């Protein structure tokens, strides 16, 4: 028997009618924002939301505010029908696919900036990026008004910035971080992996390997800077054309952690970013030095 297609709405007004009915019925609503081109990483977030919610909404919106001139906005993969079929298969209840005009009404002047946290790591060279993320997510939160929203820990800085925004602005939304879904060689699944040539794809697994080795070394007591230096060398040896950073940070503030402040028994975050030609890959993982 042919399945009914996933309900898809494009306006706040249509979205709100459905959300209103769900709220009247006392249902708990989960939300997963995406830019489409969905893969198993995105779908895992839907499944995570379904574990704790009665209804789950996914948004598909390629946010131009997150791209600078010359970045990949025009070529960013778009596949709405396939995406909706995938969402349907994992049990999502509704797709919200707003137009540009719906998200940014003409003459729109309001933006959200989560200060400091947006200027580090991936934000260093492109602070506009996280202003764009915070602004679109705040707008989507206001449209959907979910009880729970799930973000991937793969984009760890984004996840922490959203948590901070929710705290600062008093959104009554529980933010959950979904585990990173990886390929067999450890490479984090990402829409941008599609840009890699077969040879680059083989080298790209080195990001996970380098971070994982650094994590093991730090946990075993190797001085942090030595472990990070080795990881940077590992990335270059795997064919990364440029390494933006491999670093350790406080898991909440994202401020750099060095040997002096990496307290035993307190979790830290290890993060890396590097390039294959025009394709930028990021990854991260937790580390913990046991108290002995
Ligand atoms: P994007 O469509 O790239 O904006 O991603 C939408 C959401 O999916 C974000 O919360 C991402 O962190 C999350 N995500 C992307 N890739 C993965 C992955 N490999 N594992 C888990 N979550 C992911």
Condensed summary:
This protein is α/β, with parallel strands linked by helices and 292 residues long. The protein is 37% helix and 18% strand.
How does this structure look, described?
The protein is of the alpha/beta class and 292 residues long. Helix content is 37%, strand content 18%. Strand 3, helix 3 and strand 4 form a beta-alpha-beta unit. The site of adenosine monophosphate (AMP) has 17 residues, from helix 2 and strand 5.
Secondary-structure map:
Layout: E1 8-9, H1 12-24, E2 29-34, H2 40-52, E3 55-60, H3 80-90, E4 94-96, H4 100-103, H5 128-144, E5 148-152, H6 156-169, E6 174-178, H7 198-204, H8 206-219, H9 224-237, E7 242-249, E8 268-276, E9 279-287
Parallel strand pairs: 1-4, 2-3, 2-5, 3-4, 5-6
Antiparallel strand pairs: 7-8, 8-9
Helix pairs in contact: 5-6, 8-9
Adenosine monophosphate binds at residues 34-35, 41-42, 44-45, 151-152, 154-155, 178, 180-181, 188-191.
Question: Roughly how many Å apart are the termini?
Answer: 60 Å
Low-confidence stretches: none
Task: Output the strand order for the largest sheet.
Answer: 1-4-3-2-5-6
Any ligands, ions or cofactors bound here, and which? Answer: adenosine monophosphate
- Residue share in helix: 25-40%
How many DSSP-defined strands? 9
Helix- and strand-based class?
alpha/beta
Strand content: 15-25%
Bulk shape: globular
Order of helices and strands: EHEHEHEHHEHEHHHEEE
Radius of gyration: 20 Å
Instruction: Provide mean pLDDT, rounded.
Output: 94
Largest sheet: 6 strands, parallel
